[in-house]
Each structure stands twice: as C-alpha cells, then as structure tokens.
Amino acid sequence: MSWEISGTYVGSCTCSLICPCPVDGVPTGPNGECRGVNVFHIASGKMDDTDLAGVDFAFCNWFPSNLTAGGWKVGAVVDDGASEAQVGALGSILRGEAGGPFGDLAALYGEWLGLERASVTFSGGETPSGSVAGRVDVTFEPLPGPDGGVTTVKNAMFGFAPEFRIGKGPGHSDLFGLEFDGVYGETSDFTFASEMAEGAPKGRG
C-alpha cells in the first residue's frame, strides 16, 4: 500500500533541556526514562484512496533507555472527527504495518498501547500547541537563537524532520497511563511516506 502525509507537529517530553533522544543518548527525564507526546496536524496526505488531509492525531511514547535499545511503549489517539477509514489508515501507518519510517521504528516497539479516539486539536504559528481533550495540553516555547532566530537541531539520528525547532514544552499529558509534566519541546513541518528519500531522518515517538 502507498501512503504519504505532511503537515506540522508539536511535541513535549520529560527530558531536561536539551533532549538527548534524537542523538540516541540516554534520556534525562525522571528515573532515566523519556515520556513524551507529539500532536500532529496533517495538512495533506492519503493512503491509497483514503484522504487524510485535515486529520489531527497524538502519538505518545515511553522510552526506557536510549532509542536504539528498543523496548518502547507507544500509542496513538486520532481525532474523533476522523472517519473509520482514516482511523484505520493511520493505525496501520503508526503501528508500522504500512512501511515507511514508522515501519522502520516498529522493530524498536516493545508494546503497542493501542489506538483511541478523542477530540484532538492543533494550533500552529510561532508557538504551536496541541491538545487531547482533558488529557493533553502542550505548548511550544522556542529557545532564542542569534539575531532573533530560533534554536534548531539538524541532521539528528532520530527526528520527525531533517531540522526541527527546540525549546520548552510546558504542559501536562496523561495518555495510556503515561502521565507526565512536559519540560523539553520541539516543533517542525514534517513529511512521511511509504517510500522516503535516501538519507531521510528516522521518526521517533
């Protein structure tokens, strides 16, 4: 099956500034683990004949150690305005069944926590935010760069984009029993597909 999605995401996790997970470092959150959530807005995309444009979803993670050690716990929540076909397509993508970057990462999954439906919202701009009704509330606060710019990470081993903005990610998340208060944050535009260009970064939860 063929698929592609593109849009914008905002994420938060328990690691201290700056999160070491993109470079396969040991998490710096409490107990040496990383609990995180990323809220995605799909601006355009499809799987075969199923249009995925306009769908928002949240992807949460628990990393017990550095990312390549595996044993991840991951789960997802798709906006309840999505159709059954859209939910099914995204479930297949995020579980790794449809190939692409999530297919590569599925080898590191220790436990798939499930896919749920709830009201998921995303707001873009310089300080994007995401929420899952009553359970997630995340806002991105950029770290300033020189000359009014922002701090970025580029060409990391793991990332949802070749370059992403980093900063603070205050807010609270409680999905699949992985409750936490956010410290680190990141955001970027993203493009994922069943066939990715050679050298494209690996996504992460």
Short description:
The chain is mostly beta strands. The chain has 2 helices and 15 strands. Strand 7 (120-123) and strand 8 form a beta hairpin.
Write the layout of secondary structure elements.
Layout: E1 3-13, E2 34-47, E3 50-51, E4 56-63, E5 72-79, H1 84-94, H2 100-105, E6 109-118, E7 120-123, E8 129-132, E9 136-139, E10 141-142, E11 152-154, E12 163-168, E13 171-175, E14 178-181, E15 184-193
Parallel strand pairs: 5-6
Antiparallel strand pairs: 1-2, 1-15, 2-3, 2-4, 4-5, 7-8, 8-9, 9-13, 10-12, 11-12, 12-15, 13-14
| Number of DSSP-assigned strands | 15
Instruction: Choose one word for the global shape.
Output: globular
Q: What is the typical, i.e. mean, pLDDT?
A: 94
Helix content: under 10%
Radius of gyration: 15 Å
User: N-to-C SSE series?
Assistant: EEEEEHHEEEEEEEEEE
Number of domains: 1
Main sheet: strands, sense, barrel: 10 strands, mixed
Helix vs. strand class: mainly beta
What are the segments in which pLDDT stays under 50 over at least 5 consecutive residues?
none
Distance between the termini: 23 Å
Please indicate the percent range of residues in DSSP E strands (runs of 2 or more).
over 45%
In DSSP terms (H or I, runs of 4 or more residues), the helix count works out at 2
